Input
Amino acid sequence: MVKIGSYWLDYAYSPRSPLKKNIKTDVAIIGGGITGVSAAFHLASRGIECVLLEKSTIGSGSTGNSEGNLVPLPLGRFRELVEKVGRKNALDIYNASVSVIREMANLSKGRPDLSFHYTKKFVLATTRAQAGLLKKEFKLTKACNIKSRFIPVPHKVIGASKTFYGGLIYESNFARINPARFVRELATRSEKSVKIFENTPVKVIRRLKDGRFELSSSTHRVVCNTLIAATETFSSEIALKDKNFKSIGVVAAIAEPLDKNVLRKLKIDINTRVIDTSENYAAIGPISGNKISVTYEIRPKFLSAFRHIVEFPIIRNIAAYVVKHGLAKVFPLLEKSRIDRIWGCKYASTKDMMPIIGRDPKNSNFLYSIGYGDHGLVFGFLGGKMLSEVYTKTQSRRTKKLLSLLKPKNGRNLTLKT
Output
């Protein structure tokens, strides 16, 4: 039977107590994923006391169910980013992301259980048209001093199928981490200044007459001067009403321990992503030892059946078979491998995969960071850090520039009941 549940979350963890009394605080953060915990951590580093409310356990949402990839730019789409914001701004976003990955590397030093390691990234093209776009991407990244190589015959480099028409290797600044353990460690380091309550879902957010916010759980309330929303629920609610957002499902799986000789032939230490002309993608990369992970993105039109992957063993086994079949198409040597674990999550992303970060235009004491694409762990950490700078009015020149590119354009009244 195929196991269910994120590989990253499969270890003993003792959650903190839920909210047991009414609290007044200057800053309240809703969401204990990478964004919320990063905001709390960076506020704590500035001596700011705050309260963080998590509906389940720290890191157990989309963070702990993610791929664990640290990606400094939307993969294979740097060219599109340049077209949207210009080369200089695109490089600022890339360099800010690289700085975040380095900070996460420093925070992980001495903690092998966090599983941080740098890796290369390989993007494979399934059509000649996609190969042509990757060539353009290569020329642009080279001109911007981003280390990359275009590979015309991928199967000779990493043992991929001969059906691919080309590939692009990003040589540096990509990494992997255990996202659940990392976020939980960050939360622990924040506790001198941050009160963290787990298993505390916020049922109602209400604006008081004096401008403060009242956050109500089932039994108690938190009243705060400033609210930071860093929760997938908020992103999903926007996705339902905002045409610039889309909901995405991701199925992740772990392949059984593989023969080391096979791994050597595949050079599977390189994280690999497959792109084609559809909205789907697949990512394959090392987890630990001789295990690899396989990830598939589900098109929005199939999301209505997404929950069945988790709830029903038969559907789960079918999903595992589909993942295995896709894996064998990319790497024929893995045809006899077995999927021994599968899990999934949904998240909301802007269509261009660039986040929205900053103050809400209609509510100056309401801050949020939402809308990530396939680089959510990096931008989640960066978004939380930027929000802490916004609150303390200590934005660096780089942060101010990024905020001008990523700030909210429309006020959000979605969860605010007056």
